[in-house]
Design brief:
Blueprint lengths: L3 H7 L30 E2 L13 H7 L13 H12 L1 E4 L4 E3 L10 E7 L8 E6 L4 E6 L4 H8 L4 H4 L3 E8 H8 L3 H22 L2 E6 L4 H8 L6 E11 L2
Antiparallel strand pairs: 1-6, 2-3, 4-5, 4-7, 5-6, 7-9, 8-9
Helix pairs in contact: 3-7, 4-8, 6-7
Amino acid sequence: MTTWKDYLEISKYQNMGESLQRQGVPQPPLEKPCAAEAILIDLPDPHGITLPKMNLVELIEKRESLRVYQDEPLSLQEFSFLLWATQGVKEISKQFTKRTVPSAGARHPFETYILVNRVEGLKNGLYRYLALKHKLILVDDSVDISQKITEGCKMQKHVQNSALTFCWVADFQRMYWRYGERSLRYVMLDAGHVCQNLYLAAEAIHCGVCAIAAYDDDLMNAVLGVDGEAQFTAYIATLGRRA
């Protein structure tokens, strides 16, 4: 059985082999493809939102994990803003994207899945964010999808009571192509960058966030429709309106 000490050793630069990128292997797609027949859902321009005047120091000082939310829904404009703040694309090239969050080598390994419980004008269900297009696709609108994700998060009630629950899935090959065995370190670092942006963006619209690392990997991977190896649940966070 490989331990964390073993992983730290094999992922040191001096112990790594030549990356797939240096071997000339074509890189994985910058985003998980969707079916040709998928219906894309337009989102408002995230820059169209009107935010209260708050400086960065205020946002940082106010930030705390919040598990109790109002029943008030978010607007679609606010939802669009949160998606942009956590994975918004500023520039696209053939080999990388520049986004609103930092990522090792600009690999940006995450696919964002969102459980929508309360957003005006949007049907409840599980969606995936297409960052390159700033659009959504509906993944699962079954009546029990919120309960399934709550169960995957070990019955933490704030999942089912949230307006939104963000589930970040790592597409591991996207990072591994460049960084080999060191990739897992970078994926986890990147997850922290993304979630912190969500915390700060949420404060700007009078919402709160609670990051979740306590979840059942197998249940969450199954409900999100990923295999748990090439793609796996890396981080989760609930969000809702402050009381």
